[in-house]
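Quick one - first record:
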Amino acid sequence: MELNQPVKPNPEVVCTDVGGKEAVLLHLDTKKYYSLNQTGLRIWQLLSKGQTPAGVIGQLQDEFDVTPEKARESVIDLMNELISEKLIQTGI
């Protein structure tokens, strides 16, 4: 995965924010539910606004006061899961 390539949520996925601390994703095609913690929710929100993965990493460093390595690891790990479940689309 390229950190500067565009990524966007799959249009068949609905995100419901649960009190700003977590979220539930529903894939309308598969009818599967997924949960996101606060960090996952923030990553989802930033990707939804058109941020590249590199931009999300930088934003997480600022908002959560984490090291560049931890921010990168968190973003890449979640994105790999989201890609495997077809919740986001890359290379658009």
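second record:
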Amino acid sequence: MSLHTDMTAIRTAALAAVDPAAAVTRALRDGLGPLQGRHRLLVIAVGKAAVPMGEAALQALGPAVERAIIITKRGQAPRRRPTSSTALFACGHPVPDEAGLQAAARVEAALREGKEDGVLLLLSGGASALLPAPAPPLVLSDVVGDRLDVIGSGPAVPDPTTYADAWAVLEAADLVERVPEAVRAHLQRGRRGELTETPKPGDPIFRRVEHRIVGSNRLAAQAAVAQARNLGYRALLLTTFVEGEAREVAKVAAALVKGARKYGDPLPPPLCLVWGGETTVTVRGKGLGGRNQELALAAALALEGCPHFLLMALATDGTDGPTDAAGGLIDGETAARIRAAGFDPRALLADNDAYHALRAAGALLRTGPTGTNVNDLLVALVGRVEER
């Protein structure tokens, strides 16, 4: 049993389970719901996985598609449009840009024209930033728990929040005076009833809308657990609701690894523990990294000297922060290898420079763009004493 070989197999299985093209193909094969019998469809695909999702829909639906609009992150668009009737946009992410505004305008225009008798909307991570249609002169920003009103900012689902709710958030966080005047003015107009609220639950506009989640963090985590069991590990999916500061989550992960290593809790080795979700990083330094790299570096420090384990922190889209890494893969000797390379791992962590720390130890995880995006996975393998 090789922990590195097994971790690679587990990662491969998790990503394969949420392959966007396969997920769309399965969903359309299993039933079209409200699209059944419609022959003039508008396909709109938005997000980091928009290209494979959109192409899969075009292939599955064939001549039923009248037009398609595919909107994805710059650098992930194909060189050629899938069909002559497809509009392809490569836009800014995570910061919205002019290309995103143009893409949103094209979507709005297509929906207003109403040439087709059905719309298939395909959303994936990053859609909020890639499809900005802010109220002039505003600009907007970008999901744990699979909430439909949050995925891609929920463009086709009821919005239970109000202008008053948004104002209350600013007040609670003491941000009222720190946001632009245009934001304050817009929210105040909404609170006074001068602006129309977004459609709420029960609005008849949603009568003919059907939603289906075809890929999620939970599916990826379940596939990781299944593969680990196939490899002979006792495997547990602990949660897919991980949130919070990355370096604090790392302490919890380290505690679980130590408990399994020393006492066999929650189960004795060989053990695979899987978490899913999305952490955050409060940037105080000037270094380079991402939330998964920061988590991995913090865990490497917390687990220094611990034998016979391997921990992976993975951004499922293959891009963790503004780097070429998907995360980190660490063991009990990672911190020592960073020091041996001439760096202080604690100083680099304090400077939010997990990228260079992990690179020095050969602990960066590079997958390249995966074509999917279902938040993050954290996987810990704990082997028997004789296993590495």
